[in-house]
Amino acid sequence: MNTSTEQPGISRRQLLRCGLLGTLVLATAGGIASVTRTLRSGPGTGYRQLRESHIPMLRRIIPVILDGALPAGEADATVQAVLDGLDRSLDHLSPAMRSQSLQLFDLLSLDLTRGAATGIWRSWENATSEQVANFLSRWEHSRLALFRQGYGALNQAILLVWYGQPLAWAHCGYPGPPRF
Amino acid sequence: MLIPDLFRHGLERGWQVQNASQLVEDLTLEADIAIVGSGAGGATSAEILSAAGFRVLLIEEGGLFTSSDFRMQENEAYPTLYQEGLGRLSKDGAITILQGRAVGGTTLVNWTSSFRTPDQTLAHWASEHGVVGHDSRSMAPWFERMEQRLGVERWAAEPNANNDVLRRGCEELGLHWAVIPRNVRGCWNLGYCGLGCPTNAKQSMLVTCIPAMLDQGGSLLYLARADRLLLAGDRVAGIECVAMDERCVAPTGRRVRVRARHYILAGGAINSPALLMRSEAPDPHHLLGKRTFLHLTSFSWAQFDHLINPFYGAPQSIYSDHFQWRDGVTGPMGYKLEVPPMQPGFSATVLGEPGTPGAGLMEQLPNSNMLLALLRDGFHPDSASGTVTLRGDGSPVLDYQLTDYTREGLRRSYLSMAEIQFAAGAKLVKTVHRDATPARNMAQAREIIEQLPLERYRALLGSAHVMGGCPMGEDPQHAVTDSLGRHHQLENLSIHDGSLFPTSIGANPQLSIYGLTAKLASLLAERLA
Ligand SMILES: Cc1cc2nc3c(=O)[nH]c(=O)nc-3n(C[C@H](O)[C@H](O)[C@H](O)COP(=O)(O)OP(=O)(O)OC[C@H]3O[C@@H](n4cnc5c(N)ncnc54)[C@H](O)[C@@H]3O)c2cc1C
Ligand code: SF4
Predict the structure, then answer these.
(1) Which of A71, B14, B41, B292 is the most buried (most CB within 10 A)?
(2) Domain positions in chain A
């Protein structure tokens, strides 16, 4: 069950588990959400909002979502730029939307929920790009509205941050704003 | 920079402008008229009422940003100039909702298209929603007045190549198209209206009505969020505001209490009904926040052989109303067709396509075009409409669910847009929907579009035109205010913004708001005199 070439969607047992966890984590301010909140440490070093536990997860997800768009040979610098950008957007979101996003990141990164929610049972550091892509595609086609929503949210947040910065522009032929 | 920063010059001349984030103690302010929200409706009203001799206080939750702050960078503009730091979505996350939040409101970031309220819409309001006195003939002088005030004129330069796709496609197919009137003076044709105009050419509230109000002795308090109205019987006795930090994210702990003779809500749709809901204002017929409309927006992406550079040039200069009224005002859903400015962050996010397929499309951005359809919601009983609710922390969120009627309109809009793009010579069209693969010709596109499941999260949808939620009309059972924007239950409260509309407009809404609120404010000035 740790890789999933099986049909989109997850086993019934997992579905129930994720359904429950996911619903609680994302849709309420109490219950599991408060459990994850107490588990969650403060912001990671160098960040205002992102937690230390989110970083390995995002480092694996960002290059998969931006596959084909990142300049070759500068992976580390560009992924870092996206992390910094995401942190800045989180820092400007309304408290309600920020806590929804942080709860999504918690769900993806905390040991308690990661395996069931993503099918990535071992740590994010060891996840292959294929495993990450499988997880994204399962979320995209999940029967749970919550996962479909999470899939869209991850994509849009990362795409907006990446293409909003000059590092991205050579790839998409944008010369940048005019100078005067 | 060579361009004079008009607003900063004004500040140097001693305008009464206060930044609430810097307050070190609580404050009480008094005015004749207190206005919540400095966007289209609030600022228009503020200029007129201060010219009539009233002491006006304009209260804005967002920050103050002026032309020298506008550096045409998406990653700077979105977090600071948009509601919720560009995080506003429908409740289920399926629709991205763009609204401004800064001194000048959404007019600071809008794309300058300026249409009068269509005759059909005004007639529909009169016959179906009990709106009196706002027929086309009575509204015309108000539109004209605001067109002159804000320099509205048909765009005289050539449309950029992105807009030209719409013109050529419609021309080829024999469909209606026309040139868009814009509220600009001396526009440099740069294309960055959505990120704040760096040249002060856009005649937003920041460079027109707000400076005029300040010159007339009015005052402005920003980074102050009206948290609740204090009610005493059937009157508003004050407004309780919370000072916000520089990001407009967290309250600083300082409060501002405002007392006035008359109060005007102009926080825009979603936020105005939310303020009334937080205040537990009387709502005997449960109307507040219901019937909120979006001009739900669908998108179609196309690739061409020639260079388009769709990120440059006046963002909107051509529109088509071919499908807007064709099937009747209350028939199958009508839509207006336009294009958006395609800076890369916006484009990639609208497209929403990750991995190599998305990267492949983005690589062709300079040769790409995007059309959008604004679906005219609220005219047919089966049309989707939204409902505002409050989250636990008192902030509003909009629940908006598609209906079959709306889905049928969406699918037709995809077909119309693809057809126009191919007619204009596109070599590839990609409907902006997760299940749509790129099509090479119209037959293929039709086959793809007819199969698309029009479910939330699969169809990628947005809105930049939020309207309704505090509808006007003479019958208190169906309207929150009367036709003059006077609250049906609270005596000294008016609403002057896009939340008044009983349906969507069927055209980009700013001039509808300017014209209507100019009229309402002028009549209010006469009543209060
Ligand atoms: C990207 C974009 C492009 C657009 N392009 C066009 C276009 O080309 N043509 C067109 O006609 N329309 C366009 N629009 C829409 C148009 O600008 C808006 O419909 C219009 O400005 C709405 O006016 P309003 O007075 O209702 O509210 P707004 O202009 O949104 O102003 C409301 C203000 O009130 C403030 N506020 C809200 N609640 C509170 C509170 N509790 N306390 C204090 N302050 C508060 C908000 O921060 C905001 O500044 C566009 C919108 C967007 C987002
Ligand atoms: S296109 Fe004109 S109005 Fe828009 S930002 Fe550029 S100069 Fe300003």
Answers:
(1) B41
(2) 10-168
| 8-state DSSP, B86 | G
Q: Is B113 in the pocket of ligand 1 (CB under 6 A)?
A: yes
DSSP string, A11-44: -HHHHHHHHHHHHHHHH-SSHHHHHHHHHS-SBP
Ligand 1 contact via B225 beta carbon (within 6 Å): yes
Interface check A59 vs B, CB under 8 A:
no
- Cα–Cα distance, B251 to B225 (Å, whole number): 9
Please name the amino acid found at residue A80. Q
Q: pLDDT confidence of A30, banded at 50, 70, 90?
A: very low
Which residues are CB-contacts of B128 (< 8 A; sequence separation ≥ 6)?
Answer: B502
B93 near A153, Cβ under 8 Å?
A: yes
In the prediction, which pLDDT does A39 show?
Answer: 53
* Residue B477 neighbours by CB under 8 Å, 6+ apart: B285
pLDDT at A153 over 80: yes
Instruction: Decide if A79 contacts A62 (C-beta within 8 A).
Output: yes
pLDDT of the residue at B361: 97
Please give all residues whose beta carbon lies within 6 A of any atom in ligand 2, as ranges: B 112, 184, 187-193, 197, 199, 201-202, 314
Amino acid at B139: M
In three-state secondary structure terms, B374 is strand
Report yes or no for ipTM above 0.85.
yes
Closest CA to B239 of B278, B184, B286: B278
Burial class (CB in 10 A: 0-12, 13-18, 19+), B28: exposed
All structural domains of chain B, each given as residue ranges with its CATH number in brackets, are 6-112+115-149+190-291+465-528 (3.50.50.60), 161-183+297-376+403-455 (3.30.410)
Contact by Cβ (8 Å): A111, A118: no
Lowest mean pLDDT among A26-35, B454-463, B481-490: A26-35
Separate counts of helices (H) and strands (E) for chain B: 13, 22
The per-residue pLDDT of chain B, averaged, comes to 97
| pLDDT bracket for residue A180 (50, 70, 90) | confident
DSSP state of B204: -
Phi, psi of B313 (to 5 degrees): 95, 155
Residue listed under structure tokens 């609204």: B99
Interface A–B counts its CB contacts (< 8 A) at 152
With contact defined as beta carbons under 8 Å apart, do B433 and B460 qualify? yes
Q: What is the three-state SS of B430-441?
A: EECECCCCCECC
Q: Which ligand lies nearest the alpha carbon of B110?
A: 1
pLDDT digit string, tens, across residues B254-290? 999 999 999 999 999 999 999 999 999 999 999 999 9
- For residue B387 the two structure tokens come to 């409902």
- Cα(B311) to centroid(ligand 2), Å: 12
pLDDT at B1 over 80: no
Give pLDDT tens digits for A33-83. Answer: 444 544 556 899 999 999 999 999 999 999 999 999 998 887 888 999 999
